[in-house]
Amino acid sequence: QVQLVESGGGLVQAGDSLRLSCVASGRTFSRYGMGWFRQAPGKEREFVAAITLSGGSTNYADSVKGRFTISRDNAKKMVYLQMNSLKPEDTAVYYCATGRTGYSLRSYEFEFWGQGTQVTVSS
């Protein structure tokens, strides 16, 4: 059974940075793409970023390009989301997710999600 546990969320001010972490268990981590999604109150969950199994390719939502960076450490079974220049509209619960394959980069290619970590950005 796949388990994903996110951490690193919090309350910050606009312009600040945060790094989210996610530790995975239950499957061979290095064989699967990983991603981050978010859900704001009253909105549907949306794709944020994804990374392939070796970290060689990434994909980002237009709203976070140039501000967020996804990375992974296969030895530690961890995936990270470095978030810089945060804006109030980034406020959401952030979820990490595992891809269906090692090259999952698109929003519909993910199948398991963690419980999420809250990120709140004040203006």
Detailed description of the structure:
This protein is mostly beta strands and 123 residues long. It is built from no helices and eleven strands. Strands 2, 4, 5, 6, 9, 10 and 11 form a seven-stranded mixed β-sheet that branches. Strand 5 (46-51) and strand 6 (58-60) form a beta hairpin. The protein is globular, with a radius of gyration of 13 Å. The mean pLDDT is 96.
Individual helix count: 0
- From the N-terminal CA to the C-terminal CA, the straight-line distance is 40 Å
Q: From the helix content, strand content and strand pairing, which structural class follows?
A: mainly beta
Given as residue ranges, the uncertain stretches (5+ residues, pLDDT < 50) are none
Radius of gyration from CA coordinates:
13 Å
The total of beta strands comes to: 11
State the major sheet.
7 strands, mixed
Q: Determine the fraction of residues in helical runs and give it as a percent range.
A: under 10%
Mean pLDDT: 96
What's the order of the H and E elements? EEEEEEEEEEE
> What proportion strand?
over 45%
Q: Based on Cα principal axes, name the global outline.
A: globular
